Amino acid sequence: MELTALGFDGWFEQRAPALLQAGQGLARVTAVDRNAFLIRSEGAERYAELAGKLRFETQSAMDLPCVGDWVCAQWPASEGPALIHSVVPRKTLLRRKRPGTDVEFQLIAANIDVAFIVQACDHDFNMPRLDRYLLMAAEGHIAARIILSKTDLIPPEKLQQQVAQLAGAGISVPILPLSNDNGSGLDAFRALLVPGQTYCLLGSSGVGKTTLLNRLIGREAFVTKAVSETGEGVHTTTRRYLLVLEGGAMLIDTPGMRELGVMGTSEVMKDTFADLGELALGCRFTNCTHGGEPGCAITQAVAGGTLSAERYRNYLKLKKESEFRGASYFQKRKKDKEFGRFIKAAKKSMKA
Ligand SMILES: Nc1nc2c(ncn2[C@@H]2O[C@H](COP(=O)(O)OP(=O)(O)OP(=O)(O)O)[C@@H](O)[C@H]2O)c(=O)[nH]1
Ligand SMILES: [Mg+2]
Ligand SMILES: [Zn+2]
User: Fold this and answer.
1) Residue 325, SS3?
2) What percent of the chain has pLDDT over 90?
3) I need a labelling partner for 225 at 20 to 30 A (CA). Which of 3, 4, 58, 157 fits?
4) Residue from 179, 207, 238 whose mutation best tests the ligand 1 pocket (most atoms within 8 A of CB)
5) pLDDT tens column, 103-118
């Protein structure tokens, strides 16, 4: 695969050579998990980590690679991760303020050409939120398109009203209504995707971003989940991944915004599973992992029917994820497995 097929164009050509040193090559970052990276170049996709200089001399999170970045990397002579030495200046950048701070930014994705801002027209249509996303794209110099999803769930008049409301508010961004369910609008969406261009899906949790991606691929390659009754708390996609679609366009699915940056911290775990925390006081061992040890009050509660098995499973899953987040990738080999599985599933869906 050529670098141009991965989006490398004249803009980067002008800036990359000044950074590229002997023994290094250019690659695009396709996934990030703390200090672990997946990068893709002409040849293969491979794991990478930061070279010491980049890792220790970087002042700001802004200077570290994120999904979509072009980087100068050194391939290992033998087995082992590649080393990322520098990040090529970004053409565009999607970022947001870290919740609760004014100065810190969280990088969402780099070098995106077009952001699809998805709102589900049945429960999620919201002008102020739409404005915020549009602003975010504009700040990053990224073209935006609005997708109104789940059109199958509302009568056509209501959809017309929403479209009229957008026009009335002076929003001139192209709007595409679609349904992942009955397929209307999907061909129009496909027709928007240009080979070599990079797109991303933005929007609240549960609006159907991943479902749309799966429709594009034609398989249920990535996990989706029904929205909870209250519409709260479900965030199915937890990682960003740059996927090269069969037609040659690239697409990054993102987790629902509200969850970005808070997901998986031990604080969130404690709050979300306060009931299990209380139960755990009754476990025989204080360091009980609730994974089947004798005298575990939690597994007993599941067996006794006072704790739902689903909630228990969900707890174990999230606990694993949050522990994984806390672990540096290459130091804790055992924990690589989950990321590895994720990447494997992602790769399977890549034809290119
Ligand atoms: N009726 C209907 N349901 C849809 C449509 N698109 C997605 N869904 C359902 O909505 C739920 C959420 O879909 P996801 O694709 O997981 O949503 P998401 O935007 O990726 O959510 P996060 O990953 O949490 O950010 C799933 O149950 C989907 O089956 C649609 O067009 N119509
Ligand atoms: Mg998703
Ligand atoms: Zn226990």
Assistant:
1) helix
2) 47
3) 157
4) 207
5) 567 899 999 999 999 9
